[in-house]
Amino acid sequence: MNTQDIIYIHAIKVRTVIGILPHERAMKQTLIIDCELGTDTRAAGASDDIADALNYAAICDSITAFAASANYQLLEAFAEALAATLLEQYPAENIRLDIQKPGALEATREVGLRIYRARK
């Protein structure tokens, strides 16, 4: 039987350089990221040991550090690079990222992107 459990961290606020317009490139902007990592949590559930789990504090720190040093024009490029980084750093089977850019368009509350990537 294939088990797919999800470790999730929602509404991570990060600051990063993102955008194509000159005023967007001039200062860091806020992104809000939801991250879901597919994994099998049975070993951690049985052992009650963080060594057998995906450490969500460490994952959150990785996302925050990635964003702090990132410099992308497109959300698509930011998302692809972040997903690849997290799949490289953590033993998840797959990842879903929802990335929101509040205030990007005056007529909306936010714009965003959702991607799903699986380990190859």
TrEMBL record:
Domain Dihydroneopterin aldolase/epimerase: 7-117
EC number: 4.1.2.25, 5.1.99.8
One term under GO cellular component: cytoplasm
Pathway: Cofactor biosynthesis; tetrahydrofolate biosynthesis; 2-amino-4-hydroxy-6-hydroxymethyl-7,8-dihydropteridine diphosphate from 7,8-dihydroneopterin triphosphate: step 3/4
GO biological process, one term: folic acid biosynthetic process
UniProt-listed SUPFAM superfamilies: Tetrahydrobiopterin biosynthesis enzymes-like
Presence of keyword Lyase: yes
Catalytic reaction annotation: 7,8-dihydroneopterin = 7,8-dihydromonapterin; 7,8-dihydroneopterin = 6-hydroxymethyl-7,8-dihydropterin + glycolaldehyde
Signal is among the record's keywords: no
Alphabetical keyword list: Folate biosynthesis, Isomerase, Lyase
MF annotations from Gene Ontology: dihydroneopterin aldolase activity; isomerase activity
One Pfam family matching this protein: FolB
Origin: domain of life: Bacteria
NCBIfam families in the cross-refs: folB_dom
UniProt family annotation: Belongs to the DHNA family.
Protein's recorded name: Dihydroneopterin aldolase
Originating species: Cardiobacterium hominis (strain ATCC 15826 / DSM 8339 / NCTC 10426 / 6573)
Lineage of producing organism: Bacteria, Pseudomonadati, Pseudomonadota, Gammaproteobacteria, Cardiobacteriales
